[in-house]
């Protein structure tokens, strides 16, 4: 009787290996051969699930997005029903920032993917849709409803993520900068 293969489990095994390679060695080290070695499988198996590096990268970014969504959902659930808008945004953004070792690896992969899409814009289709959706959500939560302010807050989040990954900011400095911006947007008397 042939062995039953869990294809999603294998894709996830390979994606986890890709994430480790990208986080530890950078995007340039991501190749079918390197990912196969990290996963402990043959290059042929990797190629069976991901025909190209673009497919591997897109899957890894989907994993990072999913992990981020889970962190945000869990963090927001801890706030209870109807949290104050400022607290909701602070909690959501803090959950997306690479503030600890666990989230730093995801942040490195996301950064590598962004760099990858800079030279392969077609790979960024999903990111564009996510950015539009996130900006729209933030605008709805801000007191002014201003899309430009929402875009600025999103850009601040991305910049803080870069500074955290590069070691220029500590988690405390990043959260202080986020709080300062939220104070400007909501007024410093708004409850955190």
Would you summarize the structure shown here?
This protein has 192 residues and is mainly α. It has helices at 7-25, 32-39, 43-49, 53-77, 85-96, 101-119, 125-141, 147-166, 171-186.
Detailed description of the structure:
The structure is a single chain. This protein has 192 residues and is mostly helical. The longest helix is centred in the middle third of the chain and has 25 residues, at 53-77. The chain is built from nine helices and no strands. It is elongated and about 60 Å long. The N and C termini lie far apart (60 Å). 74% of the residues lie in helices and 0% in strands. α1 (7-25) crosses α4 and α8 (147-166) packs antiparallel against α9.
- Major β-sheet annotation: none
Task: Please tell me the overall pLDDT.
Answer: 88
Roughly how many Å is the radius of gyration? 19 Å
Principal-axis shape: elongated
Q: Between the first and last Cα atoms, what is the distance in angstroms? A: 60 Å
Indicate the structural class. Answer: mainly alpha
> Roughly how much helix do the residues carry, as a percent range?
over 70%
The count of β-strands is 0
Q: Strand-residue fraction?
A: under 5%
Question: Count the helices. How many?
Answer: 9
SSE order in H/E notation? HHHHHHHHH
Low-confidence stretches: none
Question: Which characteristics define this entry?
Answer:
192 residues, mainly alpha, 9 helices, 0% strand, elongated
């Amino acid at each position: 009787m042939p062995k039953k293969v869990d294809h999603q489990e294998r894709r996830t095994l390979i994606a986890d290996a890709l994430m480790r390679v990208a986080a530890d060695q950078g995007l340039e080290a991501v190749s079918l051969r390197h990912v196969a070695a990290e996963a402990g499988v043959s290059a042929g198996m990797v190629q069976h699930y991901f025909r190209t590096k673009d497919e591997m990268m897109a899957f890894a970014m989907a994993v990072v997005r999913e992990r981020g969504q889970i962190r945000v959902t869990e963090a927001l659930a801890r706030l209870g029903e109807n949290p104050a808008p400022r607290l909701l945004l602070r909690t959501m953004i803090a959950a997306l920032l690479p503030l600890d070792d666990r989230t730093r690896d995801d942040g490195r992969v996301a950064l590598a993917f962004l760099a990858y899409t800079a030279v392969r814009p077609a790979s960024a289709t999903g990111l564009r849709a996510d950015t539009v959706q996130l900006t729209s959500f933030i605008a709805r939560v801000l007191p002014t409803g201003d899309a430009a302010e929402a875009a600025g807050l999103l850009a601040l989040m991305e910049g803080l993520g870069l500074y955290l990954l590069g070691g220029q900011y500590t988690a405390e400095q990043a959260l202080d900068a986020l709080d300062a911006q939220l104070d400007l947007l909501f007024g410093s008397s708004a409850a955190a």
